[in-house]
Each structure stands twice: as structure tokens, then as C-alpha cells.
């Protein structure tokens, strides 16, 4: 083979090698690495691929900004920091308004320091990964439940963003829109909507939006001191994940896609009375089922909660089940919490 | 040509000109300043003959008004509210004292002070049955507290949104209570 032939054949062979590798890794894997150079941004094929890049960018980049949470008719502005180094992440929120507090997430540990009261609360949340948005590690889990589409481009915080709509295929969940920075694929805005028969209803039920965001090379990891057991103003609570077989109830026919994520039995209130807590999720929306023994206080309350009630996008519904009080709560439509509550049955009972 | 045009102006002022002629004349007036001046002159003559009075208006009268309006400055800043005078303050103070005096007198003469309380309680119950306002737990709302407390605990356990809502008295306090009892 002459040198001239090699000169012509080499690019051809390289193209074949690259195309083969791309096919073997699947359509999503080709776009995993966030592109830090906007001039080299590849053509984007689907909303799902963009979301995949978002999850990767959220985990690996160092970024900070000011974020406004709008929930339950209240606006809460906070400073947000995300530090990442060698696969270790830390999220930090600093409230700008009273009560002043600093919230730090290290993996499943959430520490909250209330500055005025010098109160520290350490909470372990093994089923959550972000203050911004929860998405399943495998986006394929959403395929049968949601459509993911690119619906436009807009400017958020003076940054050009893709608008991704995640719309449910049934009427049992909310729709979401995510605005993603086109350069870094970081979320700039997230809104939750009522969605019925393929139509967005009303205004956003709740939303969060960055008013500014910067991606930087490095951010320091911050540590809140461990709670002092001798200080009554400091507390730490670590729920132990248990098998849902220990639950005093079963859930029959939950809406398609909802799976058991976490179960624990622990005291939640002032009294030491244990509460069964089962968390279900469809990958995007989560629903909690709580069951506890009735007591006098709860019996008197029962008259207050015969209908589905709501706090922002979270709906909850309570009903009596034998000697127990059952409450189903989640960021899903009222119909869904009621449907799930009506499907809950006591174990070892013919209810 | 001018004679015919002047004839039309005269007919126009006497309302004897047909529609087509009137339209033609008006177009001519718009485009031809001489014709417009002739119309004004004929109008003044007609006015003087009919009323025995003659008031000559400047031909550029309306033009001057338009020019002045265009040159007039306008302000985007809101107007200052007129300051409340000392007398008005005194009147407001006197009215407030009078209202307090009347209410106090009615309170003293009220034979059944419980009725007001009953109405308030009833209103509170109705409000509680409509919705749970979990965000406003306060000492004045003790009857609603147990349910809200329970829902707060559930919300806290459900997701981390409670940390991003600026409620001073949310579930973290209940965690402290639970810790104390351990």
C-alpha cells in the first residue's frame, strides 16, 4: 500500500471507528459530557438527551447563583452553591430573608443551621439527591409515563436556555418545564403545572428560577459542626430504611410507574408513637403514605380533612382505616392521592 | 378657472354645493394654501354680512395651539400627593377618638359578652374546614395546631421543600422535641 493510498484511507477508517463506537454506546451516551465550549455544541436530537446532559452537569460542575423559590404563594430567595470534586458533591443554600439559615446537603445528609436560634438540625434523606430537581438515574424509566420534548428556547437570567417539557401520558401526574442553560446544560428554571388531556392548565403551581448563575472552576466544601447531644437546640435524626414487608398496610394497584422507594417506621411527632412511612415514586413525582394509630387528638381532627387538601403543588388526603389514621401526600394531582389512599388496605384485615 | 373655484367656495359657504363639488373643494383646500385663504376670506365676509359684526381670527390660530401642545413638557414621575394639613390631622384624630368612645360604651353595656366569642369561634371552625394553612402556625391558632403539626411532620418527612420555605416554626422544631425525649 502506497503512502498516497494511506492518506486517503485513514480518514475513512477513522470515521467508521467513531460511528461504530457511537452505536455501541447507545444514543444517550454520546452526549454525556457537558460541553464547556459553546462553539462546539453538537446538534441536539431530543429532550431526553438534553436532560441526560443536565443530570451529568448538575453532578460534575461547580456553580453558584441566586435562586428564587415560589411555593404556596410565597417567594423565598436564596443563594445557591454546588461544589463538586472527584465525584463528591455538596449543595449549599443560604437564605436571604428571615429566618436566616444555611442548609447543606452532603450526599444523603442535610444539615440546617438556624442562625438566630443557633439551632442545628441534621436530617438524613437517602431518597433525595438535589434541592433543585429529582430525576431518575436511568431516564428510560420515564419512557412509558412521560413525554420529554424540546418546546423552545428562551432567555432566563440573561442566558439562552432550552425549554424542555415533561408531560405525563395520563391525567395522574403533573407536567414540568425545565429551562436549561444552552452552554452548560444546568437548570435555570423549573415549573410544575397542572396538565389534563394534553393541555397545560393555569399558571405554574410552583417554580424555582435562578436570577443569576455562574459556573466557576472550584468552590469550597463547607461543614456545619456536628450537633452537640448536650445542646437541646441541636438535633440529629437518621431514619433507618426497613423492608416494606414490615408495613402495616399494602398498596393495591398504584398508578402505573409508581414504585416503592423507601420505608421506615419511626416516631414523627412529639409522642413516641411510631408512624409507618412508605415512599413511592414514578421517577419524577413522589408520594408518601403515612399510617399511625388513631388517638384522641387525631380523632377530633378527622372532621377537618374529609377532602383532598393542598399545600402548593402537594396534595394530601386522610382517611380512617380501622384503628389507624392514613394520610397520602405527594406532588401529584388530587385525584391521584385519593386513588392511592383508596387502594391502601390493612394487612391481616379484610378491609 | 379662479372664477369657477371662487363660485364653488361661495356655494359651499351657502350650503348650495353638491357632494362631489364639496369633496373636490375640500381636497383642493388641503393641497392649495391660496384656496384655503380664499375660503377663510369669503367666510369672514359672509359672517360680517350676515351678523353686522366682524371678528377676524388669526389664520394661524389653531396652528399655534398645536405647536404649543407639542412643545409642552410632560412628566413621567408620579405627582406628589397633597400633604395632609394640620387641620385634617386634627379632624382624623377627633373622629378616631369618637369611634373608640362609642365602641367602649357599647362594650360596657353589652349584657352577653360571650356572643362575640361564639361568632369568632364559629368563623374559625369554618375556615379550618375549608383549608389547612400549614404555613401560619401561631399561638392564636391553637385549635388548628394538632392537624397542622401532623401535616408539617409529614411534609418534612416527604421532601426537603420545607427547608426552602421561610417558615420559622416548621417541623425542624419538632425534630428538636423528638430529640429531647430520646
CATH superfamily descriptor of the largest domain in chain A: Lipoprotein localisation LolA/LolB/LppX
Sum up the overall morphology of chain A in one term.
Answer: globular
The CATH architecture name of the largest domain in chain A reads Clam
Number of separate strands of chain A: 20
Kindly describe this structure:
- The complex is a heterodimer of chains A (351) and B (182).
- Chain A is of the alpha+beta class and 351 residues long.
- Chain A has two domains: 47-216, Lipoprotein localisation LolA/LolB/LppX (outer membrane lipoprotein receptor (LolB), chain A, Clam); 239-346, Phosphorylase Kinase, domain 1 (2-Layer Sandwich), CATH 3.30.200.
- Helix content of chain A is 16%, strand content 45%.
- Chain A is built from four helices and 20 strands.
- Chain A has helices at 3-29, 47-60, 296-301, 334-342, and strands spanning 62-71, 74-85, 88-95, 101-106, 109-114, 119-124, 146-156, 159-168, 175-181, 187-196, 199-216, 234-237, 249-251, 259-267, 274-281, 286-293, 309-311, 314-321, 324-330, 344-346.
- In chain A, the strands form three sheets. A twelve-stranded mixed sheet of chain A has the order 7-8-9-10-11-1-2-3-4-5-6-12.
- The radius of gyration of chain A is 24 Å and the shape is globular.
- The model of chain A is unreliable at 6-33 and 35-40 (pLDDT under 50).
- Chain B has 182 residues and is mainly α.
- Chain B has three domains: 2-60, no CATH class; 84-130, no CATH class; 133-182, no CATH class.
- Chain B has eight helices and no strands.
- Chain B has helices at residues 2-13, 19-31, 33-51, 61-71, 86-109, 114-130, 145-158, 172-181.
- In chain B, helix 1 (2-13) crosses helix 3 (33-51) and helix 2 (19-31) crosses helix 3 (33-51).
- The radius of gyration of chain B is 41 Å and the shape is elongated.
- The termini of chain B are far apart.
- The model of chain B is unreliable at 111-145 and 168-182 (pLDDT under 50).
- The chains are: A alpha+beta (351), B mainly alpha (182).
Amino acid at each position: 500500500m502506497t503512502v498516497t493510498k494511506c492518506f486517503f484511507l485513514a480518514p475513512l477508517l477513522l470515521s467508521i471507528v467513531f460511528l461504530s463506537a457511537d452505536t455501541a454506546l447507545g444514543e444517550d451516551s454520546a452526549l454525556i459530557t457537558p460541553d464547556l465550549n459553546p462553539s462546539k455544541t453538537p446538534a441536539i436530537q431530543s429532550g431526553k438527551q438534553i436532560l441526560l446532559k443536565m443530570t451529568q452537569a448538575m453532578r460534575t460542575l461547580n456553580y453558584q447563583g441566586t435562586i428564587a423559590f415560589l411555593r404556596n404563594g410565597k417567594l423565598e430567595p436564596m443563594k445557591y452553591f454546588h461544589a463538586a470534586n472527584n465525584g463528591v458533591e455538596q449543595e449549599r443554600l443560604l437564605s436571604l430573608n428571615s429566618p436566616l439559615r444555611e442548609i447543606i446537603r452532603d450526599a444523603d445528609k442535610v444539615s440546617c443551621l438556624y442562625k438566630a436560634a443557633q439551632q442545628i438540625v441534621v436530617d438524613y434523606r437517602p431518597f433525595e439527591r438535589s434541592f433543585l430537581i429529582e430525576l431518575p438515574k436511568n431516564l428510560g424509566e420515564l419512557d412509558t409515563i412521560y413525554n420529554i420534548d424540546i418546546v423552545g428556547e428562551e432567555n432566563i437570567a440573561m442566558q439562552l436556555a432550552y425549554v424542555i417539557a415533561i408531560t405525563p401520558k395520563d391525567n395522574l401526574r403533573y407536567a414540568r418545564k425545565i429551562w436549561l442553560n444552552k452552554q452548560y446544560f444546568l437548570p435555570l428554571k423549573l415549573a410544575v403545572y397542572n396538565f389534563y388531556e394534553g393541555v397545560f392548565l393555569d399558571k405554574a403551581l410552583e417554580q424555582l428560577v435562578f436570577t443569576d448563575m455562574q459556573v466557576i472552576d472550584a468552590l469550597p466544601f463547607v461543614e456545619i459542626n456536628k450537633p452537640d447531644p448536650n445542646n437541646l437546640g441541636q438535633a440529629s435524626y437518621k431514619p433507618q430504611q426497613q423492608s416494606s414487608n414490615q408495613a402495616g398496610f399494602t398498596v393495591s394497584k398504584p398508578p402505573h410507574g409508581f414504585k416503592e422507594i423507601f420505608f421506615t417506621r419511626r416516631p414523627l411527632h412529639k409522642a413516641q408513637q411510631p408512624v409507618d412511612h412508605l415512599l413511592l415514586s414514578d421517577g419524577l413525582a413522589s408520594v408518601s403514605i403515612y399510617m399511625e394509630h388513631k388517638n384522641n387528638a387525631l380523632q377530633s381532627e378527622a372532621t377537618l380533612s374529609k377532602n383532598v387538601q393542598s399545600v402548593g403543588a402537594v396534595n394530601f388526603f386522610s382517611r380512617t382505616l380501622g384503628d389507624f389514621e392514613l394520610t397520602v401526600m405527594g406532588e401529584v394531582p388530587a385525584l391521584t392521592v385519593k386513588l392511592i389512599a383508596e387502594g391502601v388496605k390493612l394487612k391481616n384485615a379484610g378491609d | 378657472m379662479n372664477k369657477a373655484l371662487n363660485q364653488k367656495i361661495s356655494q359651499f359657504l351657502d350650503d348650495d354645493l353638491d357632494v362631489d363639488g364639496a369633496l373636490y373643494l375640500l381636497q383642493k383646500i388641503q393641497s392649495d394654501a391660496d384656496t384655503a385663504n380664499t375660503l377663510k376670506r369669503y367666510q369672514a365676509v359672509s359672517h360680517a354680512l350676515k351678523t353686522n359684526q366682524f371678528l377676524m381670527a388669526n389664520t394661524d390660530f389653531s396652528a399655534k395651539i398645536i405647536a404649543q401642545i407639542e412643545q409642552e413638557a410632560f412628566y413621567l414621575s408620579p405627582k406628589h400627593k397633597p400633604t395632609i394639613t394640620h387641620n385634617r390631622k386634627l379632624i382624623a384624630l377627633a373622629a378616631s377618638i369618637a369611634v373608640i368612645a362609642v365602641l367602649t360604651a357599647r362594650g360596657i353595656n353589652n349584657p352577653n359578652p360571650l356572643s362575640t366569642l361564639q361568632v369568632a369561634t364559629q368563623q374559625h371552625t369554618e375556615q379550618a374546614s375549608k383549608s389547612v394553612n400549614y404555613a401560619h402556625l401561631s399561638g392564636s391558632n391553637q385549635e388548628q395546631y394538632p392537624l397542622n403539626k401532623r401535616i408539617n411532620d409529614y411534609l418534612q418527612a416527604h421532601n426537603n421543600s420545607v427547608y426552602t420555605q421561610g417558615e420559622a416554626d416548621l417541623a425542624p422544631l419538632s425534630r428538636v422535641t423528638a430529640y429531647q425525649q430520646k
